[in-house]
Design brief:
This protein is an alpha+beta fold and 181 residues long. The protein folds into 2 domains: 7-97, Alpha-Beta Plaits (2-Layer Sandwich), CATH 3.30.70; 106-180, Alpha-Beta Plaits, CATH 3.30.70. Helices cover 27% and strands 29% of the residues. It has helices at 22-30, 61-71, 91-97, 119-129, 158-168; strands at residues 10-14, 38-43, 50-57, 84-87, 106-111, 133-140, 147-155, 172-173, 176-177, 179-180. It is globular and about 45 Å long. Mean pLDDT is 81; it is low at 90-102.
């Protein structure tokens, strides 16, 4: 991968609170003298509220790597609020950074996944209950090549995605209750 590509210098950021906006996150990182090219928080299309994650594009892969190494799961706010960070690695991430999420696609966050859960298994569980599921992505650690314990499920129907957030939160997959946002 070219180190100048958007993907190579973009991080996924999770655990964003509803009240946080792009300017707030940028101001926190600028406190540490880290320049940011762009920030995109993914929002519910109908309500405009944060879905709890987004993407940060930096000017270089080195800057992105610095932020990932220094701030993943560490407090960067006055109240020690932590964010989950990871490399953005799929086409939806790149599209979100460019402000062009595919139309009629709605993504929900799935956390607390057992390390043995595969993308196909996760998709299959949701597809049994929600016919508009079109995909699942589990975030993989690039070094260990193992699941980081969270991922995303994509829908074509907004109402089904919102129902899944309400109905699947706490649902057990592989004997472990999941967290859904």
């Amino acid at each position: 991968m070219d180190s100048n590509s958007i993907q190579a210098r973009t991080l996924w950021i999770g655990e964003i609170e509803n009240w946080m906006d792009e300017q707030f996150i940028e101001s926190r990182l600028l406190t540490y003298n880290i320049p940011i090219k762009s920030i995109k928080i993914i929002r519910d299309r109908s309500k405009g509220i944060s879905l709890g994650y987004g993407f940060i594009e930096f000017y270089s892969k080195e800057q992105a790597n610095q932020v990932l190494n220094e701030f993943n799961n560490k407090g960067i706010l006055h109240n020690n609020k932590t964010f989950k960070l990871n490399w953005a690695s799929d086409s939806a991430s790149k599209a979100a950074c460019m402000g062009s999420l595919p139309k009629n696609e709605f993504t929900i966050y799935i956390g607390e996944l057992d390390s043995n859960v595969t993308e196909n298994y996760l998709k299959g569980i949701f597809l049994k209950l929600y016919k508009s599921v079109i995909g699942a992505k589990i975030v993989i650690d690039p070094i260990t090549k193992k699941s980081k314990g969270y991922g995303f499920v994509r829908f074509t129907d907004h109402n089904e995605s919102q129902r899944a957030i309400l109905e699947m939160n706490g649902f057990e997959i592989a004997g472990k209750p999941i967290k859904v946002k």
